[in-house]
Inverse folding.
């Protein structure tokens, strides 16, 4: 079926749990071996938490599905150990072009500011991403990935979650302290819990056609047409993926027959009309989809947590599905780990739902606005949209009004109750609740980046300019922070090397270009505290050990 990819088949393997007299207990079970479920499993395993992943299938997702991954996704993927493989295989793009009818009205460059390790976006078929994640899970001793294991029953008490799992060799039972449901939009776990996801179903249909063609025909750019002559009254999106596969999305309208539209004899004329009769291509895969913007009321249900499409769905415009899903697990895993270790109260787990429902609402709002602009629901809206598009050709003020999909950016969780409010004035965007910025640094004489150095623990950044800024008393206090039950590892950030006797848990890094200092509006004595998911949780103009301890305590859910 696919000319550019061979789908793996993973073996069903009987587990020892199936021979146990009763239900076997595990600390964490993840349901669903898609990108979000495997991201959670990798993260737990890297923390040293034993985790079982259950999936009712035995291969990766068929079709390109999620294809566009943002910088934040790539930063998280680096920490999970798959980022470089995604970069190496994926297509990096920065330029987007917007067309109205038969002409280009403007273009935009998504190239982020300089001195970041990762690009703004890459395109990569979801099956490659899942393959890399499977490989990574299998490298981790603490992770146990079980194929052809379908969860058919879920219930919980105050103390435990109980599952019944169906396999080719019959059912067996498991229990766990925490269950993470990453089993997609039609989540069986959600249904088993009697919960629902509520929102808006858009009465529209889109055709996805993945085609293989010579890269000389089109550059690796994102092209979006409104009302093109080859697809009058509708819209079309084109962008390149790995293996010289281009994804084309055609707006079909609500009345289109999905089964008819998926037939090659109907797809090929559409593609020819779009690409031109002289462009040779091969059809790789096609699907027709209808999309929904909805979410659950709460993403925590006792000891059960919902992530990715199981918790929230958005339309595909803006690439917010997989990107927001991996942010879910990045937010959740360290909190469960902290509670399991007795380092945080169980109330910390409520912050997962609080923070990620806020993020979901932001994504749904942006996705809904994009959908309404791309597919106007009445003639008045269409007239307004077309007027904006005509103005955008010659007037820059109109271009921000054009919405062909606001591309995914991480939410700033500024209202989170885990943040410590600023007591001092800062002039930068990296506020408490925002992901930490990146920048080039030298660490142990090697060139690297800040985000590559921040581990899955609390980190401090103390900016120093000379030896007096890092006096013995300060270094002693930083060493004490590293000995806390939940350690705070601190990086001394300087613009030059210094010969210092550093305590364990304190490390000097050189910000020779001054990029990190500038992006964090730092000066001598400035201190930033980041959470294990690399979000800034507090900052202060002058380092204060008691203030850092209080901020960490608040970030761990202590009120």
């Amino acid at each position: 079926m696919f000319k550019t990819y061979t789908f793996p088949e993973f073996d069903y393997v009987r587990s020892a749990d199936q021979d146990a007299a009763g239900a076997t207990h595990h600390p964490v079970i993840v349901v669903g071996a898609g990108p979000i479920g495997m991201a959670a499993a990798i993260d737990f395993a890297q923390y040293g938490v034993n985790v079982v992943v259950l999936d009712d299938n035995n291969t990766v997702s068929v079709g390109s599905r999620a294809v566009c991954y943002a910088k934040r996704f790539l930063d998280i993927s680096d920490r999970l150990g798959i980022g470089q493989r995604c970069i190496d295989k994926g297509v990096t793009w920065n330029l987007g072009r917007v067309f109205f009818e038969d002409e280009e009205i403007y273009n935009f460059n998504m190239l982020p500011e300089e001195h970041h390790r990762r690009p703004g976006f890459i395109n990569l078929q979801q099956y490659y991403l899942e393959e890399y994640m499977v490989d990574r899970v299998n490298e981790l001793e603490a992770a146990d990935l079980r194929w052809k294991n379908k969860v058919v029953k879920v219930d919980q008490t105050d103390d435990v979650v109980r599952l019944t799992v169906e396999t080719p060799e019959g059912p067996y039972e498991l229990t766990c302290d925490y269950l993470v449901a990453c089993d997609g939009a039609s989540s069986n776990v959600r249904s088993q819990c009697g919960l629902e996801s509520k929102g808006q179903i858009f009465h529209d249909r889109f055709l996805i056609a993945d085609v293989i063609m010579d890269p000389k025909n089109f550059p690796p750019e994102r092209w979006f047409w409104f009302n093109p002559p080859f697809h009058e009254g509708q819209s079309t999106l084109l962008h390149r993926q790995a293996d010289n596969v281009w994804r084309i999305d055609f707006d079909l309208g609500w009345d289109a027959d999905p089964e008819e539209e998926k037939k090659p004899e109907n797809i090929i004329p559409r593609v020819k009309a779009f690409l031109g009769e002289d462009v040779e291509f091969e059809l790789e895969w096609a699907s027709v989809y209808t999309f929904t913007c909805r979410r659950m009321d709460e993403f925590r249900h006792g000891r059960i947590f919902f992530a990715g499409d199981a918790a929230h769905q958005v339309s595909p415009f803006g690439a917010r599905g997989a990107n927001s899903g991996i942010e879910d697990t990045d937010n959740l895993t360290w909190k469960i780990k902290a509670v399991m270790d007795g380092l945080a109260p169980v109330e910390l787990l409520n912050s997962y739902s609080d923070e990620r429902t806020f993020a979901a609402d932001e994504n749904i709002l942006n996705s809904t606005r994009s959908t309404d602009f791309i597919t106007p629901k009445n003639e008045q809206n269409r007239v307004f949209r077309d007027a904006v598009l005509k103005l955008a050709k010659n007037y820059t003020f109109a271009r921000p009004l054009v919405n062909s999909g606001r591309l995914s950016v991480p939410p700033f969780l500024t209202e989170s109750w885990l943040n410590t409010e600023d007591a001092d004035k800062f002039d930068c965007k990296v506020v408490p609740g925002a992901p930490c910025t990146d920048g080039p640094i030298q660490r142990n004489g090697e060139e690297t980046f800040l985000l590559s150095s921040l581990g899955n623990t609390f980190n401090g950044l103390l900016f120093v300019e000379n030896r007096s800024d890092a006096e013995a008393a300060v270094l002693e206090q930083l060493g004490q922070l590293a000995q806390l039950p939940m350690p705070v590892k601190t990086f001394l950030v300087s613009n030059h090397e210094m010969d210092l006797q550093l305590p364990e848990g304190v490390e000097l890094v050189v910000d020779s270009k001054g990029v990190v200092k500038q992006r964090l509006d730092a000066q001598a004595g400035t201190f930033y505290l980041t959470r294990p998911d690399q979000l800034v949780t507090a900052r202060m103009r002058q380092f204060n050990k008691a203030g850092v301890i209080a901020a960490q305590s608040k970030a761990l859910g202590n009120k």
Summary: The radius of gyration is 25 Å. Residues 440-555 form a domain with the Glutaredoxin fold (CATH 3.40.30.10). The chain has 14 helices and 28 strands. The longest helix spans residues 350-374.
